[in-house]
Amino acid sequence: MRFKGLDLNLLVALDALITERSLTSAARKINLSQPAMSAAVARLRSYFGDELFGMRGRELVLSARAERLAGPVREALTHIELSIIARDVFDPARSNRRFRIALSDFISVAFFRNVVERVAREAPAVSFDVMAPTDEHQELLRRGEVDFVILPDFFTSSAHPRAALFVERLVSVGCCTNSELLHQLTFDRYMSMGHVAVKHEGAHKASVAQSFLTGLGLNRRIDVLVQSFSMIPPLVVGTSRIGTMPLGLVRHFQRTMPLQIVDLPHPFPAFTEAIQWPVLHNSDPESLWMREILLQEATRMAPAQDHP
């Protein structure tokens, strides 16, 4: 089918090429032979009057024009998929939808595993592609390439719908043998102790604790820098160092490690974990179903106000 001289099937090929960055992988993704995909590339170049792709080794490199086309093409195809060819009736038990979700290790351990367990019972053919949050999550939402992002609400984008999941708070965690934690932790002592701290790999967003301290113009004494909260407990055990983590995650590790939890000194705030999804998916029945699952499971989270 042509629209103003453009064969609309070429948009599917263009989207696959932009996503896969490989002629072979793109052809496989949309069930074309390599000669047919090569022919599609030639026709795309002719229509747009641009090379669109170069080669660096075996990887396709996008031209500036292809970079500009990437977002609008993905948005157009997603809109067609969700608004025109999507089924009106959604049956979770028969769905084979694969949801792509960006979330942290904290959310995975303290919350999302409950979601996966429930979905396995109610919709056994539904699957997940879980990725760590990155700098690109807003762009992925815009293009509809991720179904959900779960992160603290102050890191969410105003360009897409969102909903609060649950309130969490940070605590200090150290080894049970750490005598520095036997007394109330003052702010000055907290700042001067050795810390195992998180710097999320590939993301420009600092952790909640670091963002708060940076906002006050303060710096902790950081002895060990790690890529995820889950790496903190093993590295404070047997030492005098401390870490700052979400309470729900510390509760998980406390079952198997000699850890003690200490309240952080004033004025560390609680924060709200939120879920965000592409505006393109707002009326998608499968997305609506998964949103409801996530929100229901969030209501079952243990309250963050107290700890053992």
TrEMBL record:
GO terms for molecular function: DNA binding; DNA-binding transcription factor activity. Keywords: Activator, DNA-binding, Nodulation, Repressor, Transcription, Transcription regulation. Residues 6-63 form the HTH lysR-type domain. Coiled coil: none annotated. InterPro entries: LysR-type_TF, LysR_HTH_N, LysR_subst-bd, WH-like_DNA-bd_sf, WH_DNA-bd_sf. The keyword Hydrolase does not apply. NodD regulates the expression of the nodABCFE genes which encode other nodulation proteins. NodD is also a negative regulator of its own expression. Binds flavonoids as inducers. Belongs to the LysR transcriptional regulatory family. This is LysR family transcriptional regulator.
